[in-house]
Design goal:
The protein is an alpha+beta fold and 475 residues long. The protein folds into four domains: 94 residues, no CATH class; 105 residues, no CATH class; 49 residues, no CATH class; 149 residues, no CATH class. 21% of the residues lie in helices and 11% in strands. It has a three-stranded antiparallel beta sheet with strand order 1-4-3, with no helix packed on it. A hairpin with a 2-residue loop joins strand 9 and strand 10. It is flat and about 90 Å long.
Length: 475
Amino acid sequence: MTRLGLVAFFVALVCAGVPTFGASGVGRPHPVRILPAQLATPKACIECHKTTIGKFIHSAIEAAGCGACHEVRTEGEKTTVQLLATGNALCLTCHEEKAGKGAAGQQHFPVVEGECTACHNPHASANKFLLLQPASGGKDENLCLACHDTGADVPVKGSRHGALDLGCDTCHVTHKTGDGSQPEFRYHLTEAVPALCRNCHDTADKAMMEAHGGQPLAQSNCVACHNPHASRRPKLTHANAHPPFAEKQCDACHEPPKDGKVVLIEGGKRALCLLCHDSIQNQLNAAKRVHKAISMSDTCTGCHSPHATPYPLHLVQSPVTLCVSCHPQRARERTSKQFVHAPVFQAGCTVCHEPHAGNFAGNLRAQVDEVCLTCHARNAQGEPSADSNSLVLFKGAVRLPANYLESVRRIPLRQGATTGHPLATHPVSGVADPSNPGKTITCVSCHNPHAGNGSPRLFVTETRSSSPLCIRCHK
């Protein structure tokens, strides 16, 4: 059945006096007696309800009148009115392709939450798609900016994408859905990058080519270097720029293009990066363990952007997202566990783990207990630093906000202690672990370092009480 056919069907039921699926079964009293036949057109309703008048009118009203969505019952002189269904259930009787929860693909948040009227007027509007406000303009008039502040406040020396003035729908289609792992669907783009960008930007333009060092641009991922909304840097470049890129020293990494293709020094392999980053090479040579992301690949660009990125250390994704993209167990814990360890899912895995190479199991930055007590010891305070805005840990390898330790749970142990938790005489290192034959007791004998259920103390037994944990050794 077509959408208008479905609307007509419901109106016919109402006009015939057949009970339908009202929102509550009890309608609201209407001040004026209405006959069901009057609902076939909106004429009678418009005399009082001026909200149904506008440049754009809901097609259901135009096609079938107010009875498309409202059920009116008249018994004697009493008339009651109610919606045929509540919330999005009503909207989806016609707009089923915009189903929220349970629908395939990445959904716009208000759709998932069942809030169609957060964006749309159900009757009429001065804006297309019955939007409450236009999808263009400044903070006060742009509907999208009520939730999304992207591009609204640009630093004095920053830059702003001119497309914002044309309206958010220049690049976005709110209800477009698909594979959320693809940026086109994750951000509801009208089409994938770079095709979207080429609608306005001519990659063959002379000035454009010169600005990009004469390199081929037609198939480039524009948003890998540029923020599509606004940036504190000129030319919409991301905040963290690789020095050769920022200083326009393209020939530090690039050979002249050949046959319309990018040509990199050293074939773009790790050897190119190590020409400058020799400290990483020294670390790799001296370490007992090398991160598989390095040992199984001969490039650095799986993790790092060679141009510009919004993320620290020139990472191609946020630290947490990048790590869990290769470590699926951690990714599952992020959503399946009741409690998570903050460094793993907030600050990032590299608070505790070396991202390149190290000398300790699991590529930890130190022995297990030393890593834990760096933050959880009662005397933990970080290392001396001239940067008052940062907390420095592990000989300068880790930098966190200066107040990071304020939210960390402390235990009555000093760094280097061998006994004292959870009781004064209880060992924390240096003795055999009764629950793990052949291993020495450490913090992770009792606590999960990543995530868990039961208690925020992350007991390995995943219980609220510590008793099941204790009897593993004290039987």
